Amino acid sequence: MSEQSKESRNDGKPMLPAVLPLNAEWRDDCQGKKDYDGEILRISTRYWGSRDYRSVGGNLTKPSAKSSLMLSYRANDELPTYDPGYINLVEQEFEAETEAEVKALVEAWAQQKMNEVVQLLMDKFQPGHGC
Question: Within 10 Å of residue 79's Cβ, how many Cβ atoms?
């Protein structure tokens, strides 16, 4: 990545390089064919069930989760600092009374983000698509 990518914007987040390397690679398929595949976007969620913090003076917490919509790219192992290979585009925290309620909230949020991304991509690549 360029030196520019190590700088910060006014909001303190690092600036992105003009081109992020695609996170894709060639793989053998059957009968001598080759596939060039990779991911661009991904959803990642960490769920925590009820946790009891009374042993350290806390209380029982409700089930919760934290989800991220991430832009994936090929990590650069040559950088002097850790390069995770993804950029968090948006994060959301969830809390509810039950695991099922948390999961429903996460799934609805993830679907909403999917719909938003699809709309943006359709507007860019298929203008006038009517979605």
Answer: 11
Task: For residue 87, report the phi and psi dihedrals to the nearest 5 degrees.
Answer: -125, 125
The pLDDT-based confidence of 58 (bands split at 50, 70, 90) is low
In a domain, 130, yes or no: no
59 lies in a domain? yes
Strands 51-52 and 41-48, how do they pair? unpaired
Its pTM stands at 0.71
Q: How far apart are CA 66 and CA 105, in angstroms?
A: 11
Residue 58 lies in a domain: yes
Residue 31 belongs to some domain of the structure: yes
The amino acid at residue 58 is G
